[in-house]
Amino acid sequence: MKNIALTLAMTVLLAACSSGSTVAPLPSTVNSQFAGNFQNINNTQRGTVRLDIVEDDSGAVTGNIIFESNTANCLGNNTVSGTTNGFNLSIASEINRTRFTIVTTTTRPTGATTVSTRFATSGTVGTQTRTGSDGTVTTTVTTSEDLTGNLNIQLAISNNGNTLSGTYVTTGNVCSNSTGSGDMTLNRI
Amino acid sequence: MQMLAFLFLILGVTPAPTFAEQTSNEQANKASHTLHFSLGDKHGFPLNDAKSEFDCSDKIYTTIELSNYPLGKHHFSIVWTDPAGDDRERTEYDFQVRNHDQPMRLWSWLSLRRSTGSGMLQWLNPAAGLEEFIGPWSVEVRIDNKKIDSQSFEVSC
């Protein structure tokens, strides 16, 4: 009981003798390598992102961005450029890639036909027809289209410049509706 | 050039501003700003919802949005003054206005920390160790060492 009273008395004494403090950090430069995660708003695309950037005295930023994802990912690796102002980092990059559309039509001897469509990052443009031993005819038509757009990223600089966190959004036709915007958080490595 | 300036001085004539000076003055005349206090979002960006009263555990953001500010490099500073009138914190940094496409948003944040040992007294008094921070705070924003705004917010526990 005495110990509790003593502890309480010491706490009150310590609290009475010390004063609170405030924190208001200064912004830091982002001249470094960062790695972290990204995830789009409907959580259909996610993975890791790496950012290697150099910042000059005027706050101009240049570097590279690299994405890795086990799922389909409409974002692309490229050089980035942008600016910092205070606690805000704004960078952008171009996304250019070719999307292959593969339409497979299967016609069975009975006349029944099924059509399926899938997208791929590589392929050979053209038409292939194959006839199976049972008389099933499979026709595969592969077409390609060039997708272009911009990736715009807004990140808040925190934790003494060790953390970048914010949002990204794409323009153009590189991503379908609602897959091309989301969050990303990176830490200095 | 010095001779010309001397001649203007003797004649009491003010030389006409150069084109660059005129442009700079026009930009400065069009420049405007807004200032607000808010909480931050999950990333650390200030929210747009303005607040004037904060809890003592909040991270308090001061955000200034500059429109049509003169192009080029500028110096930004925020001074946070506590209820006793003491300047508690100062955040300063340089920034660049590169275009006038959209308003430029600059911010700084402040958080309050309890005094040592007072955390244990928090259940008795939520303001324990933060007494000196309870009340009206004022914030002064300066750009290029010129005061452009000053506003107040309230902290309570």
Structural features, described:
- The complex is a heterodimer of chains A (189) and B (157).
- Chain A is mostly beta strands.
- Chain A is built from one helix and eleven strands, in the order αβββββββββββ.
- Chain A has one helix spanning 2-17; strands spanning 21-23, 33-40, 46-55, 60-68, 78-85, 88-107, 113-120, 126-131, 137-158, 163-170, 181-188.
- In chain A, strands 2-3-4-5-6-9-10-11 form an eight-stranded antiparallel β-barrel.
- Chain A is elongated and about 90 Å long.
- In chain B, the strands form two sheets. Chain B has a five-stranded mixed beta sheet, with no helix packed on it.
- In chain B, a hairpin with a 5-residue loop joins strand 4 and strand 5.
- The mean pLDDT of chain B is 84.
- The interface between A and B is large, with 33 and 42 residues.
Question: What is the name of the CATH class of the largest domain in chain A?
Answer: Mainly Beta
The largest pleated sheet of chain B is described as: 5 strands, mixed
- Number of domains as seen in the coordinates of chain B: 1
- Annotated CATH topology of chain B: Immunoglobulin-like
Q: How many discrete structural domains of chain A?
A: 2
CATH level 4 superfamily of the largest domain in chain A: Avidin-like
CATH homology-level superfamily of chain B? Macroglobulin (MG2) domain
**Would you give the CATH topology of the largest domain in chain A?**
Lipocalin
Number of strands of chain B: 8
Extract low-pLDDT stretches of chain B: none
Strand residues, percent of chain B:
35-45%
Mean pLDDT of chain A: 88
Radius of gyration of chain A: 27 Å
